[in-house]
């Protein structure tokens, strides 16, 4: 019971902020072209904004032309997991943080080789930690 209480308090709207909570815990999407990291070119590791789990490397970030930051792959295969998402009239795959189960964005099969995947991630669900 204590762990559930800690989980609910740690990732509450008061802690995450209302917009981050809406995107990460209620599976929302930030407004197109509004994200802090859309055009970011600094080197570093993108971590989960809720639990600080390392998610993506800046080396795998690229400009896909999408309205959200895009990545070729997660930093480690098990950093994220996927759920089918039928919230639109077609199937897509939601990307979630394995550390805290927060919604990050979606993955699509139209990315660059070799895997042809495009991870389109909400900036608000990420924090860029500089590599010194």
The CATH topology is given as Metal Binding Protein, Guanine Nucleotide Exchange Factor, Chain A
Percent strand equals 25-35%
CATH class: Mainly Beta
Specify the structural class: alpha+beta
Within the largest sheet, what's the order of strands? 3-4-8-7-6-5
Largest beta-sheet details: 6 strands, antiparallel
Q: N-to-C terminal Cα separation, in Å?
A: 40 Å
Shape descriptor reads globular
Number of strands: 9
CATH architect. name: Beta Complex
Average pLDDT reading = 89
Domains, number = 1
What does this structure look like?
A hairpin with a 5-residue loop joins strand 1 and strand 2. With 132 residues, the chain is α+β, with helices and mostly antiparallel strands. The protein has a six-stranded antiparallel sheet, with no helix packed on it. Strands 2-1-9 form a three-stranded antiparallel sheet, with no helix packed on it. Helix content is 15%, strand content 30%. The protein starts with a helix and ends with a strand. The longest helix is centred in the first third of the chain and has 9 residues. It has one domain: Metal Binding Protein, Guanine Nucleotide Exchange Factor, Chain A.
